[in-house]
Design goal:
5 helices, 2,3-Dihydroxybiphenyl 1,2-Dioxygenase, domain 1, 8-stranded mixed sheet
Length: about 300
Amino acid sequence: MATRGIHHITAVAGDPKQNYEFYTQVLGLRSVKKTVNFDDPSVYHLYYGNEHGDPGTILTFFPWEHLQDGKPDVGQVVAISFSVPTGSKNFWLNHLQNQNIDIEAPFSRFGKEVIGLQDPNGLHLEIVFDPKANTVDGWDGGPIPNEHTIRGFHGATLAERNYTKTGQLLEEHLGFNKTNQLDNRHLYETEADFGSVIEIIDQFDLNGRDGKGTVHHIAFRAENEDEQFDICQQLEYKGYYLTEVKDRQYFKSVYFHEPGGILFEIATDPPGFTTDEDPEELGTALKLPPWLETHRHNIERELPELTS
């Protein structure tokens, strides 16, 4: 068995209000869950995605304001790309300009047009004009017209000193196939609708560091706990050290480091984000796991407001 693309990506931010404003108002993603870091409840864990919070659309953040600014480095996810319809280029160029967002001029990579930009903490993002997005409805409840909204992840870019072992991991255990190469950039794809692309930059040469504006980990999909167990058994047999299964309320997670040092996760699709909120209410209230409910008053008192 193999995973079916990216489940979610988790990154580190600074000011939570600034983060919330950028991803919901500038990029037009839906807030699908507002909770806390289960290991550090003084900090939000913010989830953004499509209308239903489907796997393959979810970008999450730990906003730790006290951290240093990070920089892209080898052994990191160095770019996150989103899929939008192919006819939306003029809209996004105008929209980002109106929002005073600096962008890279549109360019072509692996047959698709791309716009590059950064979030307020310097996390590198890409808008990819993707034919897959043309056949999927957009969310009509946000500030972006639904015909132009982000549909989900296109994929992610990893930076490695030597791509070979990471590529083997993707192909042998995570359901990807190598489909193309452009100089030192290697393309791996699955059949998933979204979150189907991993690009690896080989022999990456930057002196970066962890901190705000960097990716904490990337999670890959397992259909259920049985598939997760099978994948983890295979990985353990190959010598990977895996954590125990962790209950993240909305999915079950197992973590390990891939050969280049990036933290990978295998996450189950169920139970999903509607387990404690109705679909129309996603992301509107602070949701806490049962073991933190008795501390709700103190947690809510310490967390800053996300909207004015």
